[in-house]
Fold this sequence. Notes:
Layout: E1 2-4, E2 7-9, E3 12-14, E4 19-20, E5 24-25, E6 30-32, E7 35-38, E8 42-45, H1 53-64, E9 71-74, H2 79-82, H3 85-91, E10 96-99, H4 101-111, E11 119-121, E12 127-129, E13 134-139, E14 149-153, E15 158-160, H5 177-189, H6 193-203, E16 210-212, H7 223-234, E17 243-247, H8 253-267, E18 273-277, H9 283-292, E19 295-303, E20 306-307, H10 309-320, E21 324-333, H11 340-348, E22 352-356, E23 361-363, H12 369-383
Parallel strand pairs: 8-9, 9-10, 10-11, 15-16, 17-18, 17-19, 19-21, 21-22, 21-23
Antiparallel strand pairs: 1-2, 2-7, 3-6, 4-5, 7-8, 12-13, 13-14, 14-15, 19-20
Helix pairs in contact: 5-9, 6-7, 8-12
The chain binds MU-OXO-diiron.
Residues 76, 78, 80-81, 144-145, 163, 214-215 line the site of MU-OXO-diiron.
Amino acid sequence: xxxxxxxxxxxxxxxxxxxxxxxxxxxxxxxxxxxxxxxxxxxxxxxxxxxxxxxxxxxxxxxxxxxxxxxxxxxxxxxxxxxxxxxxxxxxxxxxxxxxxxxxxxxxxxxxxxxxxxxxxxxxxxxxxxxxxxxxxxxxxxxxxxxxxxxxxxxxxxxxxxxxxxxxxxxxxxxxxxxxxxxxxxxxxxxxxxxxxxxxxxxxxxxxxxxxxxxxxxxxxxxxxxxxxxxxxxxxxxxxxxxxxxxxxxxxxxxxxxxxxxxxxxxxxxxxxxxxxxxxxxxxxxxxxxxxxxxxxxxxxxxxxxxxxxxxxxxxxxxxxxxxxxxxxxxxxxxxxxxxxxxxxxxxxxxxxxxxxxxxxxxxxxxxxxxxxxxxxxxxxxxxxx
Length: 386
Ligand code: FEO
């Protein structure tokens, strides 16, 4: 696949992976992207997961057509990209690896060598001439690891963006970009919004016509859409007005209460209501939905005198990913001693800029008139915030 006159795609699709990073379901697989820039000198942009090293080197050889690459640029050393660096260095003994000092330290950890005699250490603003093209390196710490560099090719107006602008899903499967890019962003990079904002500010000064990420498709049309979403996501702004109700239910009573709340919200004209069962649905999708919308209702059973495990796990994800700037409402159930709301509130108070709804809902088993009245009051209060 040709990206520009002298830039080619040589990445691979992974349909064998069960869980990306050991935790994210990837029903449509995963792509590990890699690119070759052909000039007087040849630069390869990143390697791929170790399980696909042979396929990648074969892709590379097909594009190189007998020439040998001069440089391997390693923008990110997480093993989904850095896993085949050592195989490349063995296959091309005259090649030089180009990376940040942080990346070389990680190579030493993974491969037992920092390639001291075969390397160029780069940092913010450094350039590498390939002949007619020149690569400029842009530090992008914590997008997603500290060693990350983006690379800009001013001749072709291409930004190589490491994990940024990536998504779940292999490239031989057609699917919506926004949904799987959002789930990827909030799961993988979401905690580091301030760092993403800094690198977006640097990118705004560049003339970019094509974005080449390390996952997902090459982006070359309507770049404002993707840049706009990254701006919204990294600033923790609301992308879509609406309410997410994340719940757990053991015998169906809390579920019935949640369904009633969803119905009441829709009756009051809530622009969008998303209901997710945290014990059965993908929690990464629930996390993405929580960041996407303005209001979050947490509804759960009291369990062992505290919070039901699936809800506890979800709140841990919210805290770990720097959830912030949202309204949170609480609903609890407990047959003899409801205690989940107090526990959830104590945890959610650790999030920045959270406003708790004044109305809360407590059930003591099944829905009754008292609980229905509390649900009506909560729907009324949330409706006032739409
Ligand atoms: Fe795609 Fe942070 O690795």
